[in-house]
Amino acid sequence: MKPCDPVCTIVGILDDGWAGLSDAARRRLASADFVIGAGRTLALVRPRLAADAEVRDMDGALTQSPAWIEAALAADRHVAVLATGDPLCHGIAGYLIGKLGAARVEVLPAPSTLQIAMARFRKTWQDVASASCHGKDAGEWRVGATPDHGLYPLMRAIAQNRRVFVFTGPENDPARLARALIAASYGEDAKLSVACRLLLPDEAVFTDLAPADAANMIFPGPSGVFVERTEGQIFPAFGLEDAEYLQRASEKGLITKQEVRALSLARLRLKPDAVVWDIGAGSGAVGLEAARLAPQGHVWAIEKNADDATNARANAAHWRVGNYTLVEGRAPAFLDAWPDPDAVFVGGSGGDLAGLIRLSLRRLKPAGRLVMNFVTLENLATATGTLAELNTAWDVVQLQASRSQPILDMHRMAAQNPVWIVTARKENA
């Protein structure tokens, strides 16, 4: 590419139109032979364009625009593309640079919607994360939603960041976001500030709304939302006490004890974006801590006991774990609809341990891990025998912890039941 070769200029524009453009942006548009933009942005500048400039509306034709630009550049025409705000912030610039190459693109940004909105709110934004739900109707957020839900990336961003600016859309509006926050248990410690129709005569700004108040309001679009969570209670990702989990009575309850949980989670070797199966979830302790250790991933859990499943869901709500989906049933039911896992934890087999081991190893991604907990010799023998038949590498750790208990004015050590932790590894393909 020679320095004099033509380039495509992407011009950021806001709703104040020509008046808000820099001198450089005005010059590029006034001299452009070929101008592309959405109908709304084209209307803002059309009277200022050259009389003989070709104007192309790309509404519904985004994927065709690189070919249009290529053809125009090949004909040595001056090309300008209109984008909203900063084209490199949830805008078209990244897409066109990927298609045309960075050397063939010039970007002249306007202030982003985020910058202007935060100025209206009079709030700093250097530590603000951004997310977008400006797309097709995503539907209402629901507890236990999986990553295919349209609001999932947004809700994960809110879970992982205390301050998030959200680019909303006509269907996925601020009221829907407020309802999602309530469903995700953030209703009491989150505030929403909403900027509507920025730079237009009917601009409207709402600051520090409670989700319950915003949930039923009507906000004129286009709009952006700043979600700010108060400090509130900071929940640990790992190492919760057994008693902190809602569970059935201890003499008959199902919860993986803290010491066993810690080692089992370590053996799973979870990456931040891990896909995890939790088979026999019990009260949810292992799966929920796995979800916290893999904040960009997701945990799919199954539990056959209705009371335990209810408790696991309540624990997920209490600890605000949004990347966790629990189904009630007996494995292997439902597993065929789950994505292939990076790690599988088996806390209960429902009577078909050998079959679950075969299924898990078949579905595990390369280098994935299968970790199982057993308290009976029979299940341990079944597991190791099945792994040997499958010629799968494995090891076992016997863990027997003791906890201090008061006795008169002193303490003694009370032994817990021994647990065998079996780890199998799937070889790289």
Topology readout:
Elements: E1 8-13, H1 23-31, E2 34-37, H2 39-45, E3 54-57, H3 65-74, E4 79-84, H4 93-100, E5 105-108, H5 113-121, E6 129-132, H6 152-160, E7 163-167, H7 174-183, E8 190-196, E9 204-209, H8 211-214, E10 223-229, H9 258-268, E11 275-279, H10 285-293, E12 298-303, H11 306-318, E13 324-328, E14 343-346, H12 353-363, E15 369-374, H13 377-389, E16 394-399, E17 402-407, E18 410-415, E19 419-425
Parallel strand pairs: 1-4, 1-5, 2-3, 2-4, 6-7, 11-12, 11-14, 12-13, 14-15
Antiparallel strand pairs: 7-10, 8-9, 8-10, 15-19, 16-19, 17-18
Helix pairs in contact: 12-13
Enumerate the spans where pLDDT stays under 50 for 5 or more consecutive residues: none
Q: Please write the CATH class name of the largest domain.
A: Alpha Beta
Structural domains: how many: 3
Query: Would you tell me the structural class of the helices and strands?
Result: alpha/beta
| CATH architecture designation of the largest domain | 3-Layer(aba) Sandwich
Helix content: 25-40%
Instruction: Tell me the number of helical segments per DSSP (H or I, 4 or more residues long).
Output: 13
Overall average residue pLDDT: 93
What is the general shape?
elongated
Ends: how far apart? Answer: 41 Å
Largest beta sheet: strand ordering = 13-12-11-14-15-19-16
- Number of extended strands: 19
